From TrEMBL:
This is Gap junction epsilon-1 protein. It comes from Smutsornis africanus. The gene is Gje1. GO terms for biological process: cell-cell signaling. Keywords: Cell membrane, Disulfide bond, Membrane, Transmembrane, Transmembrane helix, Transport. SMART domains: Connexin_CCC. GO terms for molecular function: gap junction channel activity. Pfam families: Connexin. One of its GO terms (cellular component) is connexin complex. Belongs to the connexin family. Beta-type (group I) subfamily. Residues 125-194 form the Connexin cysteine-rich domain. It is a multi-pass membrane protein.
Length: 205
């Protein structure tokens, strides 16, 4: 791929054709990723080391932690961010290969429809991630986790485990839900903005 394609691709990703899209890129690329990358590591980085059960044995702690966390939140949210970026990246790669200018996206029906489809796909992916997050993590992290030890040792049945910094994790969990909702709202607003520009209610940039 030529340098011109790469330059057009990067410029398209950094500067979407709508005002709301540009704000979404700023919010998604800076605030959300910074929050996850910096604060997420601070909150969840040493969770496995401080997760302790009764009896406090390494193998018991490891077994119960794997049961408590089938997937770590940092990995889940990182996958969510990458997957949600795919539709927009695919569109901008197509636009770069076709040498489509930013103003053409809003002026030509095919390009507008293609772009709206990529935004709508982002909404669907965010909604699916929101539902999966509820299934995996719920809305609250409790201080005590009751671990089912039946598959590990028969002499243990249910054991109590202490979840470190459960209150901080609850706050972080709610924040990630909030970021997902904000992203969905911005995507819907961007679709509305494009529709208004196509119908002539707003001036096309």
């Amino acid at each position: 791929m030529s340098p011109n394609y790469m330059q057009s691709f990067s410029e398209g990703c950094l500067r979407p054709p709508t005002v709301i899209g540009q704000f979404h890129t700023l919010f998604f690329g800076s605030v959300r990723m910074f929050f996850l990358g910096v604060l997420g590591f601070a909150v969840y980085g040493n969770e496995a080391l401080h997760f302790s059960c009764d009896p406090d044995k390494r193998e018991v702690n490891l077994f119960c932690y794997n049961q408590f966390r089938p997937i770590t939140p940092q990995v889940f949210w990182a996958l969510q961010l990458v997957i949600v970026l795919v539709p927009g990246a695919f569109f901008h790669l197509y636009a770069a290969c076709k040498s489509i200018r930013q103003e053409d996206i809003l002026q030509k029906s095919f390009y507008s429809s293609f772009y709206v489809f990529s935004v709508f796909l982002r909404v669907i992916l965010e909604a699916v991630a929101f539902w999966l997050q509820i299934q995996l993590f719920g809305f609250k992290v409790n201080a005590i986790y009751m671990c089912d030890m039946g598959a590990f040792e028969k002499k243990f049945n249910i054991t109590r485990c202490m979840v470190p910094e459960h209150f901080e994790k609850t706050i972080f969990l709610i924040a990630m839900y909030t970021f997902t909702v904000i992203t969905v709202v911005l995507c819907v607003a961007e679709i509305f903005e494009i529709s208004c520009r196509r119908l002539g209610f707003l001036k096309t940039q």
